[in-house]
Amino acid sequence: MAKFALLIGVSEYSEGLRSISSATQDIEAMRRVLEHPDMGAFDQVTVLSNPDKGSMERAVEDLFTNRQRDDLVLLYFSGHGLKDQTAEFCLSARDTERDQNGELRISTILAASKLNKYMNNSRSQRQMIILDCCFSGALVQGMPIKGELNIQEELGGKGRAILTSSSPIEYSFESEDKDLSIYTKYLVEGIETGAADKDGDQLISVNELHEYASERVKEAAPAMTPKFYLSLEGEDTIYLAKSPLAATNPIFIYREKVREILDEWSKENICKENFNRVERNCLNELRNELDLSLQEADIIEQENLAPFRKRLQNLTEYKATFRELLADSISITEGNRRRLKELQSRYGLRDEDIQVIEEEVQNEVYPITPTIPPITSPSAKIAQILHSIKTSKLQNFKLNLPVSIGIASIAVVSLIAISRPYIIQSDCPKQTDDFISEGEEILNNSQPFNKKEGTEYFAQCDYQKALLRFKDAWQQDRLDPETLIYLNNALLEANKMPYYTIAVAVSIPKNQNDFNDDDGDSRANEMLRGVAQLQTKINLGLLNDNDPFLKYFPDQNFINKKAINGKGLKVVITNDENKELLAKKTASSLSQRPEILGVVGHYPSEMTLATVDIYNQNNLVLISPGSTTSELTKHPRKNFLRTVFSVEQQSPAIAKFLQEKSIKKVVGFYSEGSPFSESFFNSFKTIFTRPPFSGTVVKLDEFDLGNNFKAEEAIQELRKRQGKITEKIGLVLFPKAIGDAQGDAIRLIKLNNSQNWVIGSWGLRSSRTLEQINNLQPFQKFVITVPWDSLTSPNQDFLKDAKILWTTTSVNAITALSYDATLALTKALEKANTPTRINILEQLKSLDFLVTKGATGTIQFDENGDRKKLDGKGDPQNPPVEFVHIVECRTLSSDFAFVPIKYPTAKDAGLSCLNSPKKPSP
User: Fold this and answer.
1) Which of 36, 71, 167, 63 is nearest to 118 (CA)?
2) How far apart are CA 62 and CA 551, in angstroms?
3) How many CB atoms lie within 10 A of CB 203?
4) Is 578 left (phi over 0), alpha (psi -120 to 50) or beta?
5) What is the pLDDT of residues 874-891, one digit of tens each?
6) What are the counts of helices (DSSP H) followed by strands (DSSP E) for the chain?
7) Are 650 and 785 in contact (CB under 8 A)?
8) pLDDT > 80? residue 449
9) ∠ CA 731-515-625, rounded to 5°
10) Which residue from 653, 469, 492 is spatially nearest to 568, judged by alpha carbons?
11) Are 758 and 773 in contact (CB under 8 A)?
12) 553-556: long-range contacts (C-beta < 8 A, 24 or more apart)?
């Protein structure tokens, strides 16, 4: 027995059919699992991407020709399924088109009758057809489907299994942004994880695979109804793939328990994003019994929760869209109603879901008036009952309160009994130990008594007590931005103020030695300071001057305090510990919380690349204050923006500096494999070796910072090369921010001892660098490129506010850029009026979006999400790359300081330094 597969994906069409971006991704994913020797183990897998009709038909004919009786033959198609003028089902191709009368050209489609002929002529008695078709694609473009579509009748036959993703009146729910279609996604997941193996016999039958994918699809999009037809002789199924997990495997057992809980959700029509306390405790006990790691259990849970979270997001997005339309006009136009119906189909929502959503929004936007027409829907009946109570009370004061409450309660109970389209459950007490917090747990390792008590109260939703504890903690430590964010959040909740919600993603490692501190605090705290500073300005804008809370808040006299359209700002913090797996987990969790409208983060390019596509799949904008990698310029994501300039924008400034020093030859050092470090080196090399610089960039044998780098050997090789040429040689250092790469760079600078000019990247501007200096001599020819410096800031108001909040004007560029990322996001919230994730992104990417008073200057983004090169007036200028150097300046914490190179000394820069002698070396 041999196994053969033909995978056809059509994403590009001629005029008249909409494109399906996921189709070509679908076939690559199917190829991956079918070819894998431990999964599908197919002998031959042929892939056709965007074929014309002729190529497609020849490939189909080859698939079924010259096969043996027991060969397994699989045809997979992702694209538009259509009906021609005779109402026959057919597969579309890249060149499928209509004639002048609007009818499909027969020569450009593969009819079911022709496909059936190839199948009937084949000797194989084990034939499998998978159709992930968007049958209603023709309908969208004005090509009506004529008559009923009966796949079983047109393609069925003995020895065949047919799987379809949807019925002819449904969309084959396509995910956005080059993701897989939802049906194929779960087919692939069922094979790849072994989750489709229901009985644990380590074989995945076609029945099991379809059942698994169908259940997952219905959890995410209940209106979709995947179909399955099977007709075999002599056996009851076809085994498509192998599974690594037996029924006794701990992972198999844990997955079945998770499925048991989620199946109950499906039966009860519950839609939520996480397990409740009882379910969580049950799973934790089982995990301990099975001796599964947290990571193994989490992977299983995230896979199975994903459909529910997707559905919750779709419900929320539809509700926001409908609310925005209704706010603009009391009635929905025919065109908008048609588009809402299309949106409902795309989201896979049922009519009963839509009915309840729209009635809820109508009652919110336009409260019930004295005249109510007869309505029969369950939720509208409640409105009638409550209205009658209100009217009766106006006409007859003898109706007492208990009776009113009783009638209302009966109405609510009746609704639950009659219709439960979806249920969104409360989140109190709040979940902890998930690396995500809005105030319920401490993430940044600072745990004073009042702060800890505040988180305990917040977790129990006792916001008033939490507010008082966070207030005390903030007054005790004015440098802790996490406390200030939690204080703001508790203020909003305790006073029931309206607010928008965003998140900030930071990296706080368990072991502080694993991450280079910046100016005495971690980069995470610097990011949080920028976010907290703007959040505080916004939320204080909600308070009156005589508000009693102001007495608890020191120095609240901020410049231009202003709320966002009368609302405050809640900030959710997430910590990925600088681990990609954890970053993906927390990104997934944030994405599934519909109230979160945008994310500020991440700082390291590694974490940004690990998560950007997860946010992208969920239409969640990500604005990074620190990720400079060129990967996000070469392969832009629609949801990604950054307030820091990319490496492509910084590299010309470095090249110009070297040119001014008459340096034509450069030796580069970077961290191989690091998205930031490697892309910076490659970008600089491209710029420096081309006109007008026309220089040379070389690597030594020893160049890899942070990966067993030997600084002594690198210097020895450099001196040998230098002895053979007369040209000046400069060094560029682009160490990654993780591990000891920056320590390697400092050792190299010391060994160079100012013989060559050295330019370092932004991460070297850190307290760790200053701590390693005993003698300034080796650093005389060392400069660092930074995106911003407080001594040359274009926005002095930002620095004044920083001094009020943090009691210091020593503000890092990370704080300023994080402030600007938050500012851009809040400006989009303000302009969107009724914000949704989608229209926020549209605002940020619009040509007229402009923020003129950012901490680092004017903020505007290009089509790739990179920051535009503008000055305060909006005129083009060079990227704001500042070069800083190290000067002597005795303080309580250090003997040295960073200042812009235009200031030769600390005194010239206006720094206050001590006159005491230099501290002795340890």
Assistant:
1) 63
2) 81
3) 14
4) left
5) 565 545 689 999 999 988
6) 29, 26
7) yes
8) yes
9) 75
10) 492
11) no
12) 553/471, 554/475, 555/804, 555/805
Phi, psi for residue 429 in degrees, rounded to 5: -70, 155
Residue 851 and residue 874 in contact, taking contact as beta carbons nearer than 8 Å: no
- Whole-angstrom Cα distance, residue 357 to residue 692? 61
What H or E segment, with its residue span, contains residue 885?
strand 882-888
Q: Looking at the DSSP assignment, which residues form a beta bridge with residue 300?
A: none
Say if residues 183 and 226 touch (Cβ distance below 8 Å). yes
In this prediction, residue 454 carries a pLDDT of: 94
pLDDT in tens, 188-224: 988 988 888 888 888 988 888 888 888 888 777 777 7
d(CA 195, CA 375): 45
Q: What is the CA radius of gyration of the chain?
A: 31
C-alpha–C-alpha distance, residues 800 and 735, integer Å: 33
Gap between the Cα atoms of 818 and 736, Å rounded: 20
Helix axes 378-395, 401-418, angle to 10 degrees: 170
pLDDT above 90: residue 386: no
- Asked whether the CA dihedral 77, 82, 88, 91 is positive or negative, the reply is negative
DSSP character string of 530-558: HHHHHHHHHHHTTS-TT-GGGGGSTT---
Task: Note whether 812 and 518 are within 8 A (CB).
Answer: yes
Q: Is-contact 163 228, C-beta < 8 A?
A: yes
Q: State the pLDDT at residue 85.
A: 67
**Structure token pair of residue 541:** 């804008």
Strand order in the sheet with 436-437: 436-437, 568-575, 499-506, 596-600, 621-624, 640-642
Q: Which has the closest alpha carbon to 81: 109, 107, 55?
A: 109
Indicate the residue type of 233.
E
Q: Are strands 640-642 and 665-670 parallel, antiparallel or unpaired?
A: unpaired
Per-residue DSSP letter, 78:
E
Task: Please give the full DSSP string across 235-258, using - where no structure is assigned.
Answer: SS--EEEEEEEETTSHHHHHHHHH
Q: How far is residue 676's CA from residue 666's CA, in Å, rounded to a whole number?
A: 19
pLDDT of amino acid 325: 78
Confidence of residue 403 (pLDDT cuts 50, 70, 90): very low
Residue tagged 């609310």 (tokens) = 323
Q: Which residue has the higher pLDDT, 815 or 766?
A: 815
Instruction: Return the sign of the alpha-carbon dihedral for residues 718, 721, 727, 733.
Output: negative
CB-side neighbour CA atoms (13 Å) of 180? 17
The owner of tokens 């995978």 is 7
Read off the pLDDT of residues 224-280 as tens digits, 9 standing for 90 and up: 777 777 665 545 678 888 887 777 888 888 888 888 888 888 777 777 778 888 888
Q: Is the pLDDT of residue 379 over 50?
A: no
Name residues whose C-beta falls within 8 Å of residue 362's C-beta, 6 or more positions apart in sequence.
326
The gap from C-alpha 21 to its chain's centroid, in whole angstroms, comes to 19
Q: H-type helices in 92-193, by residue range? A: 112-121, 137-140, 151-155, 182-192
How far is the C-alpha of 789 from the C-alpha of 887, rounded, in Å? 15
- DSSP secondary structure letters along 643-696: SSPPHHHHHHHHHHHHHHTT--EEEEEE-TT-HHHHHHHHHHHHHHTSTTT--E
Which string of b and e fits 531-547 if b means at least 16 CB within 10 Å?
bbbbbbbbbbbbbeeee
**Cβ neighbourhood burial of 460 (10 Å; 0-12, 13-18, 19+):** middle
Measure CA of the first residue to CA of the last residue in the chain; give whole Å.
75
pLDDT at 222: 75
Would the pTM count as exceeding 0.90? Answer: no
Confidence at residue 331, expressed as pLDDT on a 0 to 100 scale: 59
CA distance 614 to 594: 14
Helix (H), strand (E) at residue 26: helix 23-35
